[in-house]
Amino acid sequence: MSLALVARLAIVTALVCGGCAQPLAPSEMRETVDVLDYLIGDQTMWPRIGNHYSNQVVDVAHREVCWVKYANPQRFECWRWDDEFVYHAVDHAVDGDTGESYSFTDGRWLPRRLSGVWSLDVRDNRIVWFNPPCLLNAAKSHVFPYRQRAWLAPGREAAGDLGVRDTLVLEYAPYDPVSGRSVPERFYFALGAGWYEWQREGTDLVFNRRGGPVVGMNRAVWCAPPSGLSSLFKDQIAERGARTGPQRGSRAGDPTARRDDRAYREYVREEQRSQPGCPAREVVLDQRGQATTPASLSTRRRVP
Fold this sequence. Notes:
Distance between the termini: 77 Å
Largest sheet: 7 strands, antiparallel
Strand order of the largest sheet: 2-18-17-16-15-14-10
Shape: globular
Radius of gyration: 23 Å
Strand content: 25-35%
Helix content: 10-25%
Oligomer: single chain
Order of helices and strands: HEHEEEEEEEEEEEEEEEEEHH
Structural class: alpha+beta
């Protein structure tokens, strides 16, 4: 075969196969899906076990899906939805089975309908932290930004009793607003089967086999953010600003710009100390100073 013919064949091969390389995740699928088809699994497939226990509890009236963890009715995580978004409602299964819980003031978690790769930077979110029994912890309630990404992974191996299924992947990445440091987490939801896997920094929890006791959730332990919470945040921010003053390179009046990454380093240390085998998020950030919790804000609770 002549060198000229070889060269021509190489050029043709390059033109034909130039698009043959498969993209890395996330995929760029453009099909539009309702994410509830992935988040909520067939109830006959629950509860599930693997190296972690989980039981799905759906409340259509509240537009809510919850997952009971540890086979303990007081340890659960709940998300809610409307026609636009899915929202993180509460995590009442903080690592170590402490009885603590938290919720977000923004809480946007996923779009209700997904096409391609979706992302969102929730910069103005605040975390609201409760010690048991529903005592607002002002020192752990503060600015808490996070980033979200979501995409579809077609034909992913879920193993166990689930097999190969189209999967929705959600990446949640709380971050330090100054340094940008983050420890992302990934959630995996199988079409028709729901949440079956969670990953973070070397930890991989899987609950893809039917089995375990049927454990419901105890809604009575769910704490409600008090009505005066926004005023409390303003007081905390004003107090920190008066103590520290604007830092070089910051914008006056911007509480996130005054923070250094010491808070995020504390968050990472708490993550590393957390009990293995739990997809709850221990989101303790070290704050400068302690804000006093008004008595009227410290004992509020509700059953959503």
